[in-house]
Design brief:
About 5% of the residues lie in helices and about 45% in strands. It is mainly beta and about 210 residues long. Strand 1 and strand 2 (about 15-20) form a beta hairpin. Mean pLDDT is about 75; it is low at about 1-20, about 25-30, about 35-45 and about 50-55.
Length: about 210
Amino acid sequence: MDFKATASFNRGRPRVTATLRLGPLGQVTFTAGGNDPIPTPTARPTHRQDGNPQRSSLSILSNHRYQVSIDGLEYAAFSEVSGLQVETETMDFIEGGVNDRVLRLPVRSRVGNLILKRGLVAGNELLEWHLNIVQGYLDVRNVTVTVYDHPQASRTAAGGQALEAQVRMRFELLQAYPVKWSGPTFSGNGDAVSVETLELAHSGFLQTSR
């Protein structure tokens, strides 16, 4: 008697088939295999108005033209933003009798914490936000990181006057709240800018491009 189970991946295409076989004497054998080829993604060409395909132009975005906005904060200018990342855990699936490869399947994904740095200002809005969490009040807010085009790609008006930079990309973080606040390090021998750091956990982010 055979029991067969099929796991489908990659838009419903069967990739892994596992068979459990019960012999006449009660012995059990298990075999697994994946014979379907993995489809190779192909680029989708864009078309001009005349119907002929053309390659889409790609422009490299600069890492210093951005803006951070936080719900409820009037001043949210940060000198450094990091931690925009998504990581996916995998599980090894070992096929019986196949010793030259191991199939790795995606299990779950998680997002990293967003880290914001800025010069210390007279107001303490960031610290007060974190203290709300410390006192047991779940103060979640949406955070948006907006990326603008490169200065050389900015448009120029007919009279030579530079126009405002265009928005090229947005990262919208959902239900963010502070998990760590770090104050500046003071030194009597230096004249560096005092920097405070805020680390935010969130439920995920949406990325939109223009």
